[in-house]
Specification:
The protein is of the alpha/beta class. The chain contains seven helices and eight strands, in the order ββααβββαβαβαβαα.
Length: 264
C-alpha cells in the first residue's frame, strides 16, 4: 500500500515500473460513458486522469465523431477499455495546499471554485511527458443498504474482465512481459458511495483470478491502513483454499453496507 501524499514524487513514475519486463496499468474509475465529464468543472479521479492525459478527452471525441461506442459497459455487461502509450503531460496535486492558496485542495467540486492561478500553482508540467497505460472500467453505482451476492459478483466480474484485458494487452505490447501490475484504489467509493473494504477485497480476488499484481493507492494514511487491513483479511481466508463461490459466501456473511456519495 502507498500513500499518494507521502510519496507524491512517485507520481512522476506513473507508468514506469523499475523492474524489467513489467507492464503497469492505472485504473480509470469510469462512468459507463467513457471520459464523459472530462471537460466539466468537476475534478474527481476520472476527470483528473483525463486532465493529466489530454489525449483521453480527444479519444472520446474521436469515437463519438465516428459513431463508435464510447462506453465501458453495454447491456449491463462490462466492456473494459484499454488505452496504451498515452502521454501524461502534467501532474496536478489535488491535496490541501495552503501555500498555493488551496487550503482544501482541488479535488472534486472544489476545482470549480479555484482560480487559474491556484490551478497553475499546483500543476507541474512533465517535459518530456511520461507514458501511461490506462484501464477504464465502470465503477459500480446505485446501491444502498446491504450488498447483495449478485452485486458482489457483478463487481468481481467487472474487475476481473478489466484486469484480464490489461494482462492480454501487456503481452501484446511487450514480448516476454513477466508481470502485469494494476495500480488502483478505492474504485467506486467516492461519488458512488461504495464500501472501501469490500471493494479492496473484491479487487484482490479479481487480481488473483486474472494473474496480475494489484498495487493500491490512497490519499492518506487512514486509507492505507483500511486497504491494508482488507487485504490481510482476504489473504487469511484464501489460506483455506476456498473456491470463488465460498469466498463470496464469506463476504455475504459480513453484511457489507453501501455508503453515501462524497458529493464529488
Amino acid at each position: 500500500m502507498k500513500s499518494k501524499r507521502d510519496n507524491y514524487l512517485e507520481k512522476l513514475r506513473y507508468a514506469a515500473p523499475k523492474e524489467p519486463n513489467v507492464v503497469a496499468w492505472h485504473v480509470n474509475f469510469s462512468d459507463e460513458l467513457l471520459f464523459v465529464a472530462y471537460g466539466s468543472s468537476l475534478l474527481a479521479q476520472d476527470e483528473l486522469q483525463a486532465a493529466e492525459h489530454p489525449a483521453l478527452g480527444s479519444l472520446r471525441e474521436y469515437l463519438i465523431s465516428k459513431d463508435m461506442a464510447a462506453v465501458t459497459e453495454e447491456d449491463g455487461n462490462p466492456t473494459p477499455v484499454t488505452i496504451t502509450g498515452v502521454q501524461r503531460r502534467c501532474v496536478i496535486d489535488t491535496q490541501p495546499n495552503p501555500g498555493a492558496g488551496c487550503p482544501n485542495g482541488l479535488y472534486g467540486n472544489a476545482f470549480a471554485q479555484a482560480t487559474e492561478e491556484q490551478v497553475r500553482a499546483v500543476t507541474k508540467s512533465l517535459s518530456p511527458p511520461t507514458i501511461s497505460n490506462i484501464l477504464a472500467i465502470a465503477a459500480p453505482s446505485g446501491g444502498y443498504g446491504t450488498y447483495s451476492r449478485q452485486q458482489m459478483l457483478n463487481i468481481l466480474i467487472t474487475a476481473y474482465t478489466g484486469f484480464l484485458a490489461a494482462k492480454a494487452e501487456s503481452s501484446r505490447i511487450m514480448q516476454g512481459a513477466s508481470k502485469t501490475v494494476i495500480n488502483t484504489g478505492f474504485w467506486g467509493c467516492g461519488a458512488f458511495g461504495g464500501n472501501r473494504r469490500l471493494m479492496t477485497i473484491l479487487q484482490c480476488l479479481a487480481g488473483e483470478l486474472a494473474g496480475v499484481e494489484i498495487l493500491f493507492w490512497s490519499t492518506n494514511e487512514t486509507g492505507v491502513k483500511l486497504a491494508t487491513d482488507a487485504r490481510h483479511w482476504y489473504e487469511q481466508i484464501r489460506e483455506d483454499n476456498l473456491t470463488v463461490q465460498c469466498v463470496l459466501d464469506r463476504l455475504v456473511e459480513e453484511k457489507f453496507q453501501w455508503g453515501v456519495s462524497d458529493g464529488n
